[in-house]
Each structure stands twice: as structure tokens, then as C-alpha cells.
Amino acid sequence: MRLNPSRPDYTRPEIRPNSWDALLLPLVFALLVLLAYGGAQMTTPYNIGTPIPLSLDPSNLPYYLLRSALRMAAALACSMLFTLVYATLAAKVEALEKVLIPILDILQSIPILGFLSITVTGFIALFPGNLLGVECAAIFAIFTSQAWNMTFSLYSSLKTVPNDLIEAANMFHLSPWQRFWRLELPWAVPGLVWNMMMSVSGGWFFVVASEAISVSGQTIMLPGVGSYIALAIAHRDMAAIGWAILAVLGGILVYDQLMFRPLVAWADKFKFDSLPGEQIPESWLLTLIQRARMFQAMVTLPGMLWDRTSGLLRPRDKSAFYRQPGPLLTLPAWLDKVWNVVLIGAAAAALVKVGFFVHDEVGLAEVGRVFMFGVATTIRVVVLIALASLIWVPVGVWIGTRPRIAQNLQAVAQFLAAFPANLMFPVVVMVIVRYHLNVNIWTSPLMILGTQWYILFNVIAGASALPQDMKDAAGNMGLSGWLKWKRFILPAIFPSYLTGAITASGGSWNASIVSELVSWGNVKLQAVGLGAYIANATQAGDFPRIALGIAVMCLFVMALNRFVWRRLYMIAAERLRLD
Amino acid sequence: MNGHHGTALLDLSGVKKTFRTPDHKERTVLEGVDFRLAEGEIVALLGKSGSGKSTLLRIMAGLIRANGGTVLYRGQPMTGPARGISMVFQSFALFPWLTVQENVELGLEAQKVPRAEREDRAQEAIELIGLGGFEGAYPKELSGGMRQRVGFARALVMRPDVLLLDEPFSALDVLTSETLRGDLLELWDERRIPTKGILLVSHNIEEAVSMADRILIFSSDPGRVRADIPITLARPRDTESAVFRQIVDEVYGLMTAVARTGTAAGEAITIGYRLPDASPGKLASLLETVAEPPFNGHADLPALAEVTELPDDALFHLYEGLRVLGFARLAAGDIFLTPSGRAFAEADNDDRKEMFAEHLVRSIPLAAHIRRVLEERRGHRAPEERFLQELQDYLTGDEAERVLEMMIAWGRYGDLFDYDYNTGLLELPEDEEEDEEGDGEKPPAADAG
């Protein structure tokens, strides 16, 4: 052996626990116990009609929070699994790519909340006599709010793996399996982690919205923070709302510290090159995990077993050459043409079917009316995004150009984005009722209450990334006032602003379903719009109208994406890149 | 050719490679390439960028397949990446999420080498290439030179028969690349690595002469081997010695000769002519440098390379630019300014632009064509797609775009036409549109002031 004695041995893990283990292991065990307890509660027997006891006593809130947090975790796990399978298939199999990507595009623009009452019936039938069915429906709703952007992120990462790394992998004969785990997935990790964070941050909104599910005329309330809030609203209990807000803040904080800080800090190693001056993310938990010796040994154990056994599964290949690398499956040209015809046929058939269904069930006049509702909601979204931009762009730039403030406030803005805005609805409703305000105008801000923060923190990120030499040059030329904004700041932050605005706009459409129809005790406020239409249909259990509402909203969102956002994005990508 | 070294590791005969252009036309990148890498030799492949030498390297690596001819590795037809062939990349191509040790082990892991053996072998390769102590580091913690050492360790750990080097030193600074080159040659000459043959793709003539037993010069459109120069000097080679300088000179001469074949001076070039990567500003400064003392209009290419401190690859594009525009002639490793080249060097900026425009219209069919189209069309403008499509009859999509981009840079410099980035329209310069109804030709007196 030519091993150098001073060199740490990377091969044999030390098993004796050290003092870091003493800190970490209790934490891990506590988490496992909570997981087991909460999990057991999810699968208790249940029949529709029996009310689940819920109480407004704040001492129950930690338990409710645990249940909500577990739902979030389950949804996230499902999203991850879905992402790995769906995105990989789309990226690797050309014939499927043509179907999967457009479907994903549509799924992304479907208002999730409208879905809930449709899916819950199916899930209840799946687990008769058990609470798991309802739980699954709630988890599914959260899942649909999380999965799509993660899938898109992985797909686009898989499509943009640098060519020289692919060649290196081929040169060293990695099997497709090895290539996925050693090259493609690691390459995708930074984007995936970022999107997971966005997903969870958006997910809290749906946790709150999806726990009280109305199905066939009655409301099932799952134990959780969302139901607690629904109950508090029904009882007009302002103090309980306050407690719920505190609980949710706690949940967000726990997720941030135990999950995302460590993930982000860990994902940093998958980045290609850290830019000079860039903050290297840190996490106390990750440091703890990496230093805890016994824990590390336990973590590497499965890897070692895998390593040992995978060698046995396949004998060492002794031939001189490897298979020529290529796409996983390519159809011959004629089959590809047949496949195209089949796809177009299926799409046309579906369109005709939907057309007849809507025509028979609701009539064309109603379709026209729903389109008008769509226009009303579109106007709201556009006006609100514009207003929010007017406010948050200057604020974001001010913060972003002051590095020390930016670092602290960036985290606050992300935190605010995660905060479920539906918690604030009761307050607004009370104000509207109290001062007899116009419902059509004053419920609108609710739509953007939760999503405006995306604009703020993206602008902060963009402004803090402005190169110092450009700032110096602007100062040197004496740029100031409107000229400075027009010629330097606005174009420079436009790409990041756009990312924020797109997210905010998408979120606002979704939020319209809960914000155009709001209640406080017996008071019900309803604005004219597509969101209120869907919400009413959902409460009445009117499937054709739910379907119509969702389809129209889908159409509007997709049109807006295609004709406005994507165009702006192209401009930003082509002309305003800072490199 | 040069069979004094034992058996052939790689044997290529009549290799052909074509790619499809977007409108389903075929473009030939390699044609009739014969090549043999024998045991015990280092062969360098020199050629302009875009001459297909990287494609050829990838065919030998088994990464892409040839369309014609035969490729044999140790007598067997190549069907995929071969076990005995390793490659080192220009961009290093390291996996940033793996440590040095893990990067080096990766290829062994893929071959299911047991863990203990894998670690020992990786350790051996790491020590051999001088990376000891860096096992736990991530690539981004290392300097460029150290990164490429990881690249070499990763290739050598596979104990390859054949080492393919794809411009492995060109991303490094001069000093670092010299050290790394020296270390590699030492390992090779002392037979401390089991590698039996090395193929180096390069565009640095001195590098090739200092390393190789044989230099192959590649020409483009389509790529093929044009010259085969054996170098029998013993290593390590003294780069200052007269013999060495003479060989460098000779290779420069052959490179310029190759640059002229296919598009020899006087021979008509077509619209599909691949404009060299030569910005007008650089062309002008190179002309000035050659016109001034000590060269006074006639320069030895290696000496010019030293003075300008530009890489050979960039220089050959500039030479080709000057040649095709009629500002210079090339012969036997030397460059001579033509009378118009001298006049250009002495002229002031306005006159230069006018001379440049004149030469463009006269020598470059694409320039003349664009100008003619713009003059004929109403509004005097035309979308770039129109010309891109015409170019795609001759070139691949990317190459067509590059050529048009270059053409626009030249056209702008000569005030021949203008281009609007936002609309993608080519148009006649504004001041000309006013007197378009007149004689179109600007009175020279107006420009002199």
C-alpha cells in the first residue's frame, strides 16, 4: 500500500459516536417518533357523515400542525417520485416527450382548488371506511400545487446536461442507470431544490385550503391547521385566528430549518462554479449531520451494501467495446408518423367530446357568460400585478442595492411568500363589511396578498446581483433619476422581475377561487369573476359547471402565458442577459 | 506511412462523416481519411478550427460513428467506446459534485471494479500525476492546471492503450500548460504509464512540434489529411534550437499551403465560402503590425505569432481573411502585404472603410450578393433569414449563422450595409439612401476630409 498515513481514509467509516452524534441522534429519533404517531392517526377508521371532533382550544394546535406538516411532507414525497418518473420519461423517450410535455403545460395552468371536490369522491371509494381516503384527497390537492414546476425543472435540466460531461460519461462507460445517478440527477439538483422550496412555500396555501373538503353537500374537516382556521372563521373567533397564524409561522420555520437550509447548503456542491463574492449557504443542521460520525456511518451503510451487491448482479463485461450510447428509445420513421396521427386524433376526439358535454349540460349561453367572468378575473390579475410591481420594484431595488439589508430581508420576503395569505382573508372581510366597501374592487387585493412577495424577492435577488462595475459606470456617467432607472436598473433587473411576476400571476389565478368568494361567520361576499363561479359550482357539487369553469380558466391562463409571459421571457433571455 | 513502430493500435481507412443540414441536405465533414496510430508513437493532429479534427477524434473514441470507411481498434471494427481508449477533454469535463478521488474512480466503478482495488488504483494515478493530498477536494476548489491533472488521472487510471487528447492544454495559461506537458512526456518517455499510443489534437504548432513523433495536417471542407511530417528529434526538445525552429517554420509553411488549397488565390469562391473568424478590427491591427518595422510588409509567421501573442488558431483565421480580401499573400510560412494591403495600412479610418468595402464587393461573393439584393429591393432592406436560407444550401445551420454574423461585422465595418439586431433586418446605410437616386457612388472628395 502506498497510502500516506496523514491522509484521512475515505474508505472505512468510523462507527464510534462523537459529541455531534449526541446532539443529532435525539433530534432524529424525535422526528421519527412524531412521524410514526402522525402517520398512525392518518389511517384511523372513518365513515362519511361522522363529524371529526375539532376544538378551537390553542393547546390542540401543535397536534394539528403536526398533521398538516405531515400532509405537506407526504405530498412532497409524492411530487418527488412523480417528478423523477415523469420528467425522466419525457426527457429520454422521444415518443412520450411529445405527449407528456404539453400535458404538463396544461396541468400547470389548471386551477387546483377547483379539482378538490372531483377527486375526493374517488379517493374515498379507494379506502372505504378509513380516513386515509380523505387524507389522500387533501394530499393530492397539495401535490398538484407542488409537482409541476419540479417536473419542469428536472426535465429542462436533463435536456441541458453539458455535452462534454455526457461524452466523459460515455467514454467511461457509465450504464444508463449509473449515468442517471452520477451525472444527470446531480446536475439537476440545484434547480430541483430551488423548485422544491418554491413548491412548499406555495403549498402552505393549499394545506390551509384543502383540509376542509366539501363533498356531496357536506363538509369533511380533517384535523389540521386549515380546518382549525375554517372553524375559527365559522365561529368568528379572532383570537383563534391569531393562534393559527402563529402555528403556521412555526411550521414554516421548522420546514425551513430542518429541511430547506440543509438542502440548499448541500445543493451548493452540485453547482458548477460559485461566483466570487457569492454567499455560500450554510445550515447548522447540515454541519451537524456532516460532523456526526456514527450518523455518517449509518448513512453510508446502505450505499456500501448497494455497492457490494450491484457488482454481483451483473458479471464484469470483458468485451472490448461498449454499446454505442444513444437515446433510450427511438421509433422508426413510419411508426413515428402513425404515432403523430394517433395523438392528433385523440386530441381532436377529446375536444369534440368536451364540446358536446358542455353543450348538453350547460348550454352555449352559459359558456359565453363564463368567458365574460374570465375577462373580469383577467383584468383583476393584470391590474393587481401592475400595482404590486409599482410598489415592490422600487422597494426591492432599494433593498437589493444594500447588501447587508438585502441578506436579512431576502429571507423575510421568502418567508412571507410561504405564509398562506388565506389566513388574512377574515380581516379583509371584516373591513369590507364594516365600511360597506365595493366587493368587486376590495376583494381583489386578496388574490395578490400571498403572491406579491414573489415579485419582491425576485427583484431583490436581481438587484443584488447587479455587477459592481456597472453600478460604478452608471455613477461615473452621472446617471440619476428616471434616466438611471430607464437605462440601467429596469433593464438589468427585468429578467428576475419577470420570473417573479410570472409566478405571482400564476398564483393569483389559483387564489381567485378562494378570494372572489369569501365568508366570515354568516356573511358571504361574492365578486363577479371566474373564481367565484368555480367556487360556487364546487359548493353546489355541480360537476359540469366545475369542469366548464376549470377549462375556461385553463384557457385564459395558457393564453396569457403564451402570448404575454413567454414573449417577454424571450426578450429578456435574448437581450437583457448580464454576461 | 510510418510503420517503423510496431503494430497498429488504431487503423482508419477511407473514413467519411456527413451531417444533415436543417433542410435535409448532406454536408461532408470528413472525406477519405486514412490514419494509423502505431504502438509507441505520439501523433499530433493540426488544423483550423472547424476542419473536423474533433469529429475525427470522437470517431476514434467510439463516441460517434463514421458514415463510411473502416475504423479498426487492434484489428477489430469499432462498435462503441473501446475499453482501452481514454480521453482528456479541453474543458476538463469533471463532475463538479464528485471529489477528486471520486472523479478518478468513476470509470472503474462503471466497470464494477471492487472497491478496494478501485481505491488503490485511483490512489496510484493520483500520486502519479502529482495530485497527492487533493483526494478530498472538489474540482471547483482547484486551479485550472490542477483540474486538468484530475482529467489526466481519470484517463490514466483506466490503464488505457490509447490516450486521446482533445486540446487538453488550450484552456490553460502558457506556464501551466508547459509544466503539465512536460510531466506527461516524462511519464511517457520513462514508460511509467502502460499507454501505447497518444493522439493529440491541437491548434498550437509549437506544442505539436515539441510533443509529437509525427504531425498530421488537416485541411477543411471536407476534412482530410494533407500532410504527414515525421519528427525524429529526441525528447525533451529544446524549443530554442535551430532544428526545432526550422521544423516549426516548415509546419507553418505547410499550414498556410493547406489554408490555400481549395480556395487558392485567384480561384473563384462561392457564396457558400466559409468566412474566417476574423473581426475587422483585428484584421486592421494585424495589417498594421506587418506593415510596420521590423516586418516592413513581409513577416515570418512564427515570429509574427510571438509578437502578436495570439494563438495559432486565431492567427490562421486572420491570415485567411487578409488573403481572401486581397490584402496579403501567403507563401512558405511567410506573409507578404500586397500593394493594396500597404495602402490600407497607411490610410486613415474613412479611407480604410472605403477600401475595405471595395475589396469586400470584389472578393467576397456573399457581400456582393447582399449588397445587390438590398439595392434592388424596395425600402432597401431584407430579413436575415433570407440570406441564412441561401447559406444553408452550403453550410450547417450553426455554421451558416456564424458566417452571416461575420459577414455582417465585415459589412458594417466597410459601411456596405447595416443590420438591426432587434428586427433582424439588413439594410443599406442611411446616408446612402438619400442619394440613392443619384449615381449611388459616393464622390471620393466628400470622404477625404
How would you describe this protein?
- The complex is a heterodimer of chains A (579) and B (449).
- With 579 residues, chain A is mainly alpha-helical.
- Helix content of chain A is 75%, strand content 3%.
- In chain A, helix 2 (61-92) runs antiparallel to helix 7 (176-210) and helix 13 (364-400) runs parallel beside helix 18 (452-464).
- With 449 residues, chain B is an alpha/beta fold.
- In chain B, 43% of the residues lie in helices and 20% in strands.
- Chain B contains 17 helices and 16 strands.
- The longest helix of chain B is centred in the middle third of the chain and has 19 residues, at 242-260.
- Residues 261-266 and 434-449 of chain B have low confidence and may be disordered.
- At the A-B interface, helix 6, helix 7 and helix 11 of A face strand 6, helix 2 and helix 3 of B.
List the main descriptive attributes of the protein structure presented here.
heterodimer, A: 579 residues, mainly alpha, MetI-like fold, two-stranded antiparallel ribbon, 4 strands, 3% strand, globular, disordered N terminus, B: 449 residues, alpha/beta, six-stranded mixed sheet, four-stranded antiparallel sheet, 17 helices, 20% strand, disordered C terminus
